[in-house]
Amino acid sequence: MPLRAIDIFTGKKLEDIVPLLHNCDVPHVNRTDYQLIDISEDGFVSLLTENGNTKDDLRLPTDDTLLAQVKDGFAEGKDLVLSVMSAMGEEQICGIKDIGPK
Predict the structure, then answer these.
(1) What is the pTM for the complete model shown?
(2) What is the CB neighbour count within 10 angstroms for residue 74?
(3) Four-point Cα dihedral 6, 11, 12, 13, nearest 10
(4) For residues 87 and 29, what is the distance between their CA atoms, to the nearest angstrom?
(5) b vs e for 9-26, b when ≥16 Cβ sit within 10 Å of the residue's Cβ?
(6) Whole-angstrom Cα distance, residue 4 to residue 63?
(7) % the chain with pLDDT above 90
(8) What's the rounded Cα separation, in Å, for the pair 10 and 13?
(9) What are the DSSP E strand ranges found in the chain?
(10) What are the two backbone dihedrals, phi and then psi, of residue 89, each rounded to the nearest 5 degrees?
(11) 1-31 pLDDT tens trace
């Protein structure tokens, strides 16, 4: 039986042939919102967590549209919340919300 999937981080289509009664592991996917604090010159973002700490290990998104929204909104001084998707040890910015001017 063909098994088809789309990588949630790259959008790449994947396909595999597996027996009909074969068990398949399913990843646990989390989506967390963080407030954007800063963007470094080397392309990393500084995010504010719920408990008041900072998260500084994520790069700007690779999607051109989302990247432009983040950079433009930050340059305009908007208060932005970034949605981060995580699964199987990977994390990536996948969405943005404008919550008003700073």
Answers:
(1) 0.79
(2) 19
(3) 30
(4) 5
(5) eeeeeeeeeeeeeeeeee
(6) 23
(7) 62
(8) 9
(9) 2-6, 13-17, 30-39, 44-48, 54-59, 78-87, 90-101
(10) 80, 5
(11) 788 888 888 788 989 888 877 787 788 999 9
Instruction: List pLDDT tens digits, range 39-55.
Output: 999 999 999 999 999 99
In the numeric block, which tokens belong to residue 37?
């604090």
Residues 6+ away with beta carbon under 8 Å from 82 = 33, 34, 35, 36, 45, 47, 70, 93, 95, 96, 97
Contacts of 100 (CB under 8 A, 6+ apart): 78, 79
The DSSP string of 62-81 is: SSHHHHHHHHHHHHTTEEEE
Q: Are 58 and 93 in contact (CB under 8 A)?
A: yes
